[in-house]
Amino acid sequence: MAFTAQDVKALREKTGVGMMECKKALVEADGDMEKAIDFLRERGLAAAQKKASRIAAEGVVLPYYDKATKKGVVVEVNSETDFVAKNEKFMSFVEGVAKTILANDPADVEALKEMNFDGSDRTVTETLNDLVLSIGENMKIRRFERMEGVVSTYIHAGGSVGVMVGFDVADESKAETADFEAMGKNVAMQIAAMNPAYLDEASVPEDVINHEKGILAAQMKEDPKMASKPAQVLEKIAAGKMGKYYKENCLVEQEFVRGDLFQGSVKGYVDSVAKELGTEIKVNGYIRMMKGEGLEKREENFAEEIAKQING
């Protein structure tokens, strides 16, 4: 019995198994859809799909940077429980996903899934299904973001938060120094801890600025102490309050959290290190990704996690 590309697609949608495995199954089953499903179940491949309805909100966020190509990526791979994040096979898979992204430049997660996994002739989806069957938990590649150029990374609390921050360095040889490496890590830690909304004042959208100004105007209008003040004074007060907003929400304007190293803004800290190194350094962007952001865990996930703790 012959089969078409649509049959392969239909089988994939029913089982969650990769395209090549579905094609093999239909060949073995002589085009019979039900026999092909049985074939995949017998091989254990379709079993991975049974776990797909369970919410995966744990896992890790991994920032990965290749110095040779000056390319970096932050990727989030989710699992059902945080125990999996300590599993060597899981972490090896996450790193392999990052390498696959850097090598192939996929447009999105769906495109990534169809690519051959790092150093393998199997697709990312097939490799993930193998891991799901091996570990026994649902896992999903949720998202990734890339950066290029001179980059520093930081992983917080075993992958709960991953940060990648980019720099423009006039003399890029200085980026190889221990002082630059320490500075880059400190700025990345700042991002992890303070979660700035924007890079700098110029990055704040106009509608956000207008919204904040509207709130300030309403606050001053309600304050009886402001009623007698001239317009020029009110403008200065409003400007000062907007300055406070920028200082709280823009990375380079924020107070540097490592006060033991430098007293002042993040920009001031970066400038001070640049001066010591004899070059110019500017933060040009960053990625901050938090594990499970926006996801909810089902109660059964917690129950399974507790059971694992009890059973050691």
Fold blueprint:
Elements: H1 5-15, H2 19-28, H3 33-42, H4 47-50, E1 60-66, E2 71-79, H5 88-104, H6 109-113, H7 124-135, E3 139-148, E4 150-156, E5 161-169, H8 178-194, H9 206-222, H10 231-249, H11 266-277, E6 281-290, H12 299-310
Helix pairs in contact: 1-2, 1-3, 2-3, 5-7, 8-11, 9-10
Q: Helix segment count?
A: 12
Widest sheet, order of strands: 1-2-3
Number of strands: 6
Oligomer: single chain
Distance between the termini: 51 Å
Helix content: 40-55%
Overall SS class: alpha+beta
- Mean pLDDT equals 86
Description:
This protein has 312 residues and is of the alpha+beta class. The chain has 12 helices and 6 strands. The strands form 2 sheets. It has a 3-stranded antiparallel sheet, covered by helices on one side. Strands 4-5-6 form a 3-stranded antiparallel sheet. A hairpin with a 4-residue loop joins strand 1 (60-66) and strand 2. Helix 9 (206-222) crosses helix 10. The longest helix has 19 residues, at 231-249. The N and C termini lie far apart (51 Å).
At a glance:
This protein starts with a helix and ends with a helix. It has helices at residues 5-15, 19-28, 33-42, 47-50, 88-104, 109-113, 124-135, 178-194, 206-222, 231-249, 266-277, 299-310, and strands at 60-66, 71-79, 139-148, 150-156, 161-169, 281-290. Mean pLDDT is 86; it is low at 298-312.
